[in-house]
Amino acid sequence: MATGFAASSAATGRHSGSHGHAYDEWSRRNAADAANADNGNAGADWTESANESTTAASADAEDDAGSRVDESLMVVVDQDGSIGRWLCARTGGEWSPQSVSFGNVLNGRLIGAVMFDLFNGSSIAMHCAGDRGWLTREFLKRTFSYAFDFAKVKKIIGLVDSSNEKARKLDEHLGFKLEGTIKDAAPKGDLLIYSMTRPECRFIGKPGG
To answer: Which among 20, 157, 178, 188 is most buried, taking Cβ atoms within 10 Å?
Structure first.
């Protein structure tokens, strides 16, 4: 079942050059890793986003939802907008070329995605959707690392319709804290503003660690 941080938030807002540079650097690293990986997918649209596969780092580890990490899972960077569009089709959002998306792929099938948009230098909005088994620790580590370590934001923002109970529970489960409420600003209720700082993120280590 799909869940999303923002049930109907549009992926608008122009990213600054620093955000684009960080994404380019991330993509170059992914391309180099994929070229060196012996997985037969170096030239494919899906590029592996780590020096090792997801399971090389945690083959027998358990993900945050309690299910085992599958050896065929890969974390990939959105190269053509297909991951972002897949996510927006599930959350009711609108994809923008200024957004940055990551996918969790199982046996060649996209089972989950995270999209970042509304970057302003200090914060960035995060949206997600996925099927059963998508919420792995490795995927969360890679995506949160992008926001905090590459885009260098101080806060990640989650915008949630107060009527979307599943999204609220997911935000809180991941460690986001409710920071504000805007009355009647969401299609079906109030707009809840969740946020997370780097020290509050349990999925990545300390800077430089």
So the answer is: 157
Tell whether the model's pLDDT for residue 19 goes beyond 70.
no
Enter the pTM of the model.
0.70
Give the chain as a DSSP string.
Answer: ----S-SS-B--SPPPHHHHHHHHHHHHHHHHHHHH-SSS-TTSSS-B-SSS-HHHHHTT-B-TTSPBPPTTEEEEE-SSSHHHHHHHHHHT-B--TT-EEEEEEETTEEEEEEEEE---SSEEEEEEEE-TT---HHHHHHHHHIIIIIS--SEEEEEEETT-HHHHHHHHHHT-EEEEEEEEEETTEEEEEEEEEGGG-TTS--TT-
Mean pLDDT for 38-46 is: 28
Q: Which residues pair with 134 in a beta bridge?
A: none
- Beta carbons of 87 and 127 less than 8 angstroms apart: yes
Q: Which of 91-100, 152-161, 197-206 has the highest mean pLDDT?
A: 152-161
Q: What CATH number corresponds to the domain at position 113?
A: 3.40.630
- Gap between the terminal Cα atoms of the chain: 35
Q: Which domain holds residue 103?
A: 17-38+46-55+71-154
Count of domains in the chain? 1
